[in-house]
Design a protein that fits this description.
By secondary structure, the chain is of the alpha+beta class. 33% of the residues lie in helices and 23% in strands. The chain contains 10 helices and 14 strands. A hairpin with an 8-residue loop joins β2 and β3.
Length: 369
Protein backbone atom coordinates (compact mmCIF):
# COMPACT_ATOMS: atom_id res chain seq x y z
CA UNK A 1 0.00 0.00 0.00
CA UNK A 2 1.43 3.42 -0.90
CA UNK A 3 2.63 5.74 1.87
CA UNK A 4 1.62 9.38 2.11
CA UNK A 5 -2.04 10.33 1.51
CA UNK A 6 -4.80 8.16 2.94
CA UNK A 7 -5.49 5.18 0.71
CA UNK A 8 -8.85 3.43 0.31
CA UNK A 9 -9.20 -0.09 -1.05
CA UNK A 10 -12.71 -1.05 -2.17
CA UNK A 11 -13.29 -4.62 -3.30
CA UNK A 12 -16.75 -6.06 -3.89
CA UNK A 13 -18.95 -7.02 -6.83
CA UNK A 14 -21.94 -5.71 -4.87
CA UNK A 15 -22.52 -1.95 -5.34
CA UNK A 16 -24.03 -1.51 -1.90
CA UNK A 17 -21.08 -3.21 -0.25
CA UNK A 18 -18.63 -1.09 -2.24
CA UNK A 19 -20.42 1.94 -0.87
CA UNK A 20 -20.42 0.63 2.71
CA UNK A 21 -16.68 0.03 2.55
CA UNK A 22 -16.21 3.61 1.36
CA UNK A 23 -18.59 4.98 3.97
CA UNK A 24 -16.82 3.27 6.87
CA UNK A 25 -13.48 4.61 5.61
CA UNK A 26 -14.84 8.15 5.18
CA UNK A 27 -17.04 8.45 8.29
CA UNK A 28 -14.70 10.46 10.48
CA UNK A 29 -13.20 12.67 7.73
CA UNK A 30 -16.70 13.43 6.44
CA UNK A 31 -17.90 14.41 9.90
CA UNK A 32 -15.04 16.90 9.99
CA UNK A 33 -15.32 18.23 6.41
CA UNK A 34 -19.06 18.33 5.65
CA UNK A 35 -19.69 21.50 7.70
CA UNK A 36 -16.90 23.19 5.72
CA UNK A 37 -18.54 22.23 2.42
CA UNK A 38 -21.80 23.74 3.69
CA UNK A 39 -20.03 26.97 4.72
CA UNK A 40 -18.41 27.20 1.26
CA UNK A 41 -21.75 26.65 -0.50
CA UNK A 42 -23.41 29.37 1.61
CA UNK A 43 -20.59 31.89 1.21
CA UNK A 44 -20.49 31.38 -2.55
CA UNK A 45 -24.22 31.96 -3.03
CA UNK A 46 -24.14 35.04 -0.81
CA UNK A 47 -21.24 36.52 -2.81
CA UNK A 48 -23.38 36.38 -5.97
CA UNK A 49 -26.40 37.86 -4.25
CA UNK A 50 -28.34 34.60 -4.37
CA UNK A 51 -30.33 32.94 -1.61
CA UNK A 52 -28.62 30.13 0.25
CA UNK A 53 -28.68 26.87 -1.70
CA UNK A 54 -30.84 24.13 -0.20
CA UNK A 55 -28.11 21.52 -0.44
CA UNK A 56 -30.27 18.53 0.38
CA UNK A 57 -32.87 19.71 -2.15
CA UNK A 58 -30.17 19.61 -4.84
CA UNK A 59 -29.33 16.08 -3.76
CA UNK A 60 -33.01 15.16 -3.89
CA UNK A 61 -33.36 16.68 -7.38
CA UNK A 62 -30.44 14.58 -8.59
CA UNK A 63 -31.82 11.32 -7.19
CA UNK A 64 -34.25 10.37 -9.95
CA UNK A 65 -31.92 11.24 -12.86
CA UNK A 66 -29.22 9.12 -11.22
CA UNK A 67 -31.58 6.20 -10.48
CA UNK A 68 -32.66 6.12 -14.12
CA UNK A 69 -29.15 6.56 -15.55
CA UNK A 70 -27.34 4.14 -13.24
CA UNK A 71 -29.26 2.22 -10.56
CA UNK A 72 -25.98 0.63 -9.43
CA UNK A 73 -24.42 4.01 -8.64
CA UNK A 74 -27.49 5.03 -6.67
CA UNK A 75 -27.11 1.80 -4.70
CA UNK A 76 -23.43 2.59 -4.13
CA UNK A 77 -24.33 6.07 -2.86
CA UNK A 78 -26.79 4.48 -0.45
CA UNK A 79 -24.06 2.13 0.74
CA UNK A 80 -21.79 5.10 1.53
CA UNK A 81 -24.57 6.61 3.62
CA UNK A 82 -25.09 3.34 5.51
CA UNK A 83 -21.36 2.89 6.09
CA UNK A 84 -20.85 6.46 7.30
CA UNK A 85 -24.10 6.68 9.23
CA UNK A 86 -25.44 9.74 7.40
CA UNK A 87 -28.44 10.59 5.21
CA UNK A 88 -28.27 9.29 1.61
CA UNK A 89 -29.33 12.70 0.29
CA UNK A 90 -26.35 14.29 2.04
CA UNK A 91 -24.05 11.76 0.35
CA UNK A 92 -25.70 12.46 -2.99
CA UNK A 93 -25.38 16.22 -2.41
CA UNK A 94 -21.68 15.74 -1.65
CA UNK A 95 -21.23 13.81 -4.90
CA UNK A 96 -23.25 16.62 -6.51
CA UNK A 97 -21.07 19.38 -5.05
CA UNK A 98 -20.42 20.69 -8.58
CA UNK A 99 -24.18 20.92 -9.07
CA UNK A 100 -24.60 22.71 -5.71
CA UNK A 101 -21.95 25.23 -6.78
CA UNK A 102 -23.78 25.67 -10.10
CA UNK A 103 -26.88 26.67 -8.13
CA UNK A 104 -24.66 29.10 -6.20
CA UNK A 105 -23.36 30.47 -9.53
CA UNK A 106 -19.73 29.89 -8.54
CA UNK A 107 -17.34 30.81 -11.35
CA UNK A 108 -13.96 30.61 -9.66
CA UNK A 109 -11.27 29.10 -11.88
CA UNK A 110 -9.78 25.78 -10.97
CA UNK A 111 -7.69 23.03 -12.55
CA UNK A 112 -5.49 22.94 -15.64
CA UNK A 113 -5.02 19.80 -17.76
CA UNK A 114 -2.35 18.99 -20.36
CA UNK A 115 -2.22 15.82 -22.50
CA UNK A 116 0.81 14.88 -24.60
CA UNK A 117 -0.24 12.31 -27.18
CA UNK A 118 3.24 10.89 -27.85
CA UNK A 119 5.18 10.66 -24.63
CA UNK A 120 8.60 9.03 -24.19
CA UNK A 121 7.18 5.53 -24.77
CA UNK A 122 5.00 6.59 -27.72
CA UNK A 123 1.75 6.54 -25.75
CA UNK A 124 -0.12 9.46 -24.22
CA UNK A 125 0.86 10.90 -20.88
CA UNK A 126 -1.20 13.56 -19.15
CA UNK A 127 -1.31 15.72 -16.05
CA UNK A 128 -3.50 18.17 -14.22
CA UNK A 129 -3.54 20.42 -11.22
CA UNK A 130 -6.42 19.87 -8.84
CA UNK A 131 -7.33 23.27 -7.46
CA UNK A 132 -9.90 23.41 -4.70
CA UNK A 133 -10.66 25.23 -1.47
CA UNK A 134 -7.72 25.55 0.92
CA UNK A 135 -10.03 24.76 3.83
CA UNK A 136 -10.46 21.26 2.36
CA UNK A 137 -6.76 20.55 1.83
CA UNK A 138 -7.01 17.38 3.92
CA UNK A 139 -10.30 16.27 2.38
CA UNK A 140 -8.96 13.90 -0.31
CA UNK A 141 -7.44 10.45 -0.61
CA UNK A 142 -6.11 7.90 -3.06
CA UNK A 143 -8.15 4.85 -3.96
CA UNK A 144 -8.08 1.44 -5.57
CA UNK A 145 -11.53 0.14 -6.52
CA UNK A 146 -12.35 -3.41 -7.65
CA UNK A 147 -15.64 -5.16 -8.35
CA UNK A 148 -17.12 -3.17 -11.23
CA UNK A 149 -16.46 -4.11 -14.87
CA UNK A 150 -12.93 -2.67 -14.55
CA UNK A 151 -10.74 -2.00 -11.54
CA UNK A 152 -9.41 1.54 -11.30
CA UNK A 153 -7.08 3.71 -9.23
CA UNK A 154 -6.98 7.44 -8.66
CA UNK A 155 -7.76 10.40 -6.43
CA UNK A 156 -11.06 11.62 -5.01
CA UNK A 157 -12.59 13.42 -2.06
CA UNK A 158 -13.86 11.60 1.03
CA UNK A 159 -17.34 10.25 0.29
CA UNK A 160 -17.20 11.05 -3.46
CA UNK A 161 -17.09 7.89 -5.56
CA UNK A 162 -14.49 9.05 -8.10
CA UNK A 163 -12.79 11.98 -9.73
CA UNK A 164 -9.45 11.48 -11.55
CA UNK A 165 -7.82 8.14 -12.39
CA UNK A 166 -7.16 5.29 -14.79
CA UNK A 167 -8.72 1.86 -15.12
CA UNK A 168 -7.34 -1.55 -16.03
CA UNK A 169 -8.58 -1.19 -19.62
CA UNK A 170 -6.19 1.75 -19.95
CA UNK A 171 -8.86 4.46 -19.95
CA UNK A 172 -7.67 7.52 -18.03
CA UNK A 173 -9.78 10.47 -16.93
CA UNK A 174 -9.13 14.10 -15.98
CA UNK A 175 -11.74 16.45 -14.55
CA UNK A 176 -12.13 20.25 -14.85
CA UNK A 177 -15.10 22.39 -13.86
CA UNK A 178 -16.82 24.54 -16.51
CA UNK A 179 -19.56 27.16 -16.26
CA UNK A 180 -22.43 27.66 -18.72
CA UNK A 181 -25.36 30.04 -18.57
CA UNK A 182 -27.69 27.04 -18.75
CA UNK A 183 -26.29 25.58 -15.51
CA UNK A 184 -28.95 25.11 -12.81
CA UNK A 185 -31.28 27.23 -14.94
CA UNK A 186 -34.13 28.73 -12.99
CA UNK A 187 -32.37 28.85 -9.63
CA UNK A 188 -32.46 32.65 -9.54
CA UNK A 189 -36.25 32.26 -9.43
CA UNK A 190 -35.98 29.77 -6.59
CA UNK A 191 -36.12 26.56 -8.63
CA UNK A 192 -33.91 23.59 -7.80
CA UNK A 193 -33.01 21.48 -10.80
CA UNK A 194 -31.31 18.11 -10.92
CA UNK A 195 -29.24 15.92 -13.19
CA UNK A 196 -26.67 13.16 -12.97
CA UNK A 197 -23.81 14.50 -10.80
CA UNK A 198 -20.72 14.94 -12.95
CA UNK A 199 -18.53 13.19 -10.36
CA UNK A 200 -20.71 10.11 -10.78
CA UNK A 201 -20.26 10.30 -14.55
CA UNK A 202 -16.53 10.10 -13.83
CA UNK A 203 -17.15 7.09 -11.58
CA UNK A 204 -19.07 5.23 -14.27
CA UNK A 205 -16.41 5.95 -16.89
CA UNK A 206 -13.63 4.63 -14.67
CA UNK A 207 -15.57 1.54 -13.66
CA UNK A 208 -17.17 0.61 -16.97
CA UNK A 209 -15.48 2.19 -20.02
CA UNK A 210 -13.23 -0.19 -21.94
CA UNK A 211 -12.17 2.33 -24.59
CA UNK A 212 -12.17 6.01 -25.44
CA UNK A 213 -15.30 5.49 -27.55
CA UNK A 214 -17.13 3.79 -24.69
CA UNK A 215 -16.12 6.60 -22.33
CA UNK A 216 -17.48 9.25 -24.69
CA UNK A 217 -20.73 7.29 -25.08
CA UNK A 218 -21.18 7.10 -21.29
CA UNK A 219 -20.46 10.79 -20.82
CA UNK A 220 -22.79 11.92 -23.59
CA UNK A 221 -25.63 9.71 -22.30
CA UNK A 222 -25.92 11.50 -18.95
CA UNK A 223 -28.49 14.28 -18.43
CA UNK A 224 -26.72 17.04 -16.48
CA UNK A 225 -27.61 20.29 -14.73
CA UNK A 226 -24.03 21.53 -14.34
CA UNK A 227 -21.08 21.80 -16.69
CA UNK A 228 -17.69 20.14 -16.69
CA UNK A 229 -15.07 18.78 -19.05
CA UNK A 230 -13.98 15.16 -18.79
CA UNK A 231 -10.71 14.61 -20.64
CA UNK A 232 -10.37 10.98 -21.66
CA UNK A 233 -6.99 9.42 -22.45
CA UNK A 234 -6.70 5.96 -24.00
CA UNK A 235 -3.31 4.69 -25.18
CA UNK A 236 -2.14 7.21 -27.77
CA UNK A 237 -5.50 8.96 -28.18
CA UNK A 238 -7.36 11.60 -26.17
CA UNK A 239 -10.40 13.87 -26.35
CA UNK A 240 -11.97 16.44 -24.06
CA UNK A 241 -15.72 15.94 -23.65
CA UNK A 242 -17.38 19.20 -22.63
CA UNK A 243 -20.83 18.71 -21.09
CA UNK A 244 -23.52 21.19 -20.08
CA UNK A 245 -27.32 21.30 -19.87
CA UNK A 246 -27.16 22.88 -23.35
CA UNK A 247 -25.47 19.80 -24.80
CA UNK A 248 -22.12 18.07 -25.14
CA UNK A 249 -19.17 18.47 -27.49
CA UNK A 250 -15.98 16.51 -28.16
CA UNK A 251 -12.79 18.57 -28.49
CA UNK A 252 -9.88 16.94 -30.33
CA UNK A 253 -6.16 17.51 -29.72
CA UNK A 254 -4.13 19.89 -31.86
CA UNK A 255 -0.58 19.17 -32.99
CA UNK A 256 -0.22 16.28 -30.58
CA UNK A 257 -1.38 18.20 -27.49
CA UNK A 258 -4.63 18.82 -25.64
CA UNK A 259 -4.80 21.73 -23.19
CA UNK A 260 -7.93 22.50 -21.17
CA UNK A 261 -8.64 24.83 -18.28
CA UNK A 262 -12.09 26.12 -17.17
CA UNK A 263 -13.82 27.57 -20.21
CA UNK A 264 -15.48 26.00 -23.25
CA UNK A 265 -13.38 25.38 -26.34
CA UNK A 266 -16.23 24.16 -28.53
CA UNK A 267 -17.49 27.16 -30.50
CA UNK A 268 -21.18 26.30 -30.07
CA UNK A 269 -21.03 25.82 -26.31
CA UNK A 270 -18.73 28.83 -25.93
CA UNK A 271 -21.63 31.08 -26.96
CA UNK A 272 -23.17 30.26 -23.56
CA UNK A 273 -19.91 30.65 -21.63
CA UNK A 274 -20.63 31.27 -17.97
CA UNK A 275 -17.47 33.21 -17.09
CA UNK A 276 -16.36 36.56 -18.43
CA UNK A 277 -12.89 37.29 -19.77
CA UNK A 278 -12.22 39.43 -16.71
CA UNK A 279 -11.57 38.51 -13.10
CA UNK A 280 -10.84 34.84 -13.84
CA UNK A 281 -7.62 33.10 -14.81
CA UNK A 282 -8.85 30.33 -17.09
CA UNK A 283 -8.16 32.15 -20.37
CA UNK A 284 -4.67 33.22 -19.29
CA UNK A 285 -3.83 29.71 -18.08
CA UNK A 286 -4.93 28.16 -21.35
CA UNK A 287 -2.94 30.69 -23.39
CA UNK A 288 0.19 30.21 -21.28
CA UNK A 289 0.10 26.41 -21.38
CA UNK A 290 -0.64 26.37 -25.11
CA UNK A 291 2.44 28.52 -25.69
CA UNK A 292 4.55 26.33 -23.41
CA UNK A 293 3.67 23.09 -25.18
CA UNK A 294 4.57 24.68 -28.52
CA UNK A 295 8.10 25.07 -27.19
CA UNK A 296 8.51 21.45 -26.09
CA UNK A 297 11.26 19.94 -28.23
CA UNK A 298 11.11 16.35 -27.03
CA UNK A 299 8.59 14.00 -25.44
CA UNK A 300 8.00 14.68 -21.76
CA UNK A 301 7.37 12.17 -19.00
CA UNK A 302 5.02 12.96 -16.11
CA UNK A 303 7.74 14.77 -14.17
CA UNK A 304 8.46 16.90 -17.25
CA UNK A 305 4.79 17.72 -17.56
CA UNK A 306 4.67 18.68 -13.88
CA UNK A 307 7.44 21.23 -14.48
CA UNK A 308 5.38 22.60 -17.37
CA UNK A 309 2.61 23.42 -14.87
CA UNK A 310 4.95 25.36 -12.57
CA UNK A 311 3.65 28.85 -13.38
CA UNK A 312 2.47 31.76 -11.25
CA UNK A 313 1.21 35.30 -11.82
CA UNK A 314 4.69 36.55 -12.62
CA UNK A 315 4.94 33.91 -15.38
CA UNK A 316 1.72 35.10 -17.00
CA UNK A 317 -0.92 32.95 -15.26
CA UNK A 318 -1.38 31.19 -11.89
CA UNK A 319 -1.44 27.56 -13.02
CA UNK A 320 0.06 26.71 -9.63
CA UNK A 321 -2.33 28.37 -7.21
CA UNK A 322 -1.62 29.64 -3.71
CA UNK A 323 -4.35 31.01 -1.44
CA UNK A 324 -4.60 34.64 -0.49
CA UNK A 325 -4.72 34.57 3.29
CA UNK A 326 -6.91 37.66 3.29
CA UNK A 327 -9.64 36.04 1.20
CA UNK A 328 -12.84 34.87 2.82
CA UNK A 329 -13.99 31.27 2.90
CA UNK A 330 -15.19 30.21 -0.53
CA UNK A 331 -12.47 32.19 -2.32
CA UNK A 332 -9.21 30.69 -1.05
CA UNK A 333 -8.35 28.45 -3.99
CA UNK A 334 -5.19 26.36 -3.74
CA UNK A 335 -3.54 23.64 -5.82
CA UNK A 336 -4.10 20.69 -3.49
CA UNK A 337 -2.53 18.03 -5.72
CA UNK A 338 -0.96 17.29 -9.08
CA UNK A 339 -2.12 14.11 -10.84
CA UNK A 340 -0.33 12.50 -13.77
CA UNK A 341 -1.66 9.59 -15.82
CA UNK A 342 0.13 7.06 -17.99
CA UNK A 343 -2.88 5.23 -19.38
CA UNK A 344 -0.91 2.67 -21.37
CA UNK A 345 0.99 1.68 -18.20
CA UNK A 346 -2.27 1.80 -16.15
CA UNK A 347 -0.48 4.15 -13.76
CA UNK A 348 -1.39 7.22 -11.73
CA UNK A 349 1.18 9.49 -10.07
CA UNK A 350 0.04 11.95 -7.41
CA UNK A 351 1.87 14.61 -5.42
CA UNK A 352 0.36 16.75 -2.69
CA UNK A 353 0.54 20.51 -3.19
CA UNK A 354 1.29 22.49 -6.30
CA UNK A 355 3.83 21.73 -9.04
CA UNK A 356 6.25 24.27 -7.56
CA UNK A 357 6.46 22.24 -4.35
CA UNK A 358 8.30 19.41 -6.09
CA UNK A 359 6.89 16.88 -3.63
CA UNK A 360 7.60 13.20 -4.18
CA UNK A 361 4.94 11.54 -6.30
CA UNK A 362 3.01 8.53 -5.01
CA UNK A 363 2.49 5.88 -7.72
CA UNK A 364 -0.62 3.74 -8.09
CA UNK A 365 -0.19 0.97 -10.64
CA UNK A 366 -2.72 -1.39 -12.24
CA UNK A 367 -0.26 -3.07 -14.61
CA UNK A 368 -0.65 -6.83 -14.43
CA UNK A 369 -3.83 -6.53 -12.33
Amino acid sequence: MPSGPAHLVVDSADPGERGRQRGRFAADPLAASWPTYLDIFTATAESYGLPAVDVRAVGSACEQPLREWSPQLWEEVGGVAAGAGIDPLDVLALNARTEVLAHARATLGECSTVVELAGPTGSAVSIQTWDWHAELASGWHLQRVRGDRYAFVGLTEFGILAKIGVNEAGVGLHFNMLHHRSDASGHEAGAVVGGVPVHLIARRVLGQAGSLAEAVEIIESAPVCASTVLTVVDGSAAVAVEVSPAGAAVVAPENGWLVHTNHFLDSRLATGEGVADEGVTTFDRERLLTERVKGVGRPLDIEGLRRLLDAHDEDGAPVCRHPDGASAIGFRTETLAVIGLDSAARQVQVSAGGPCAGAAMTTLNLAGH
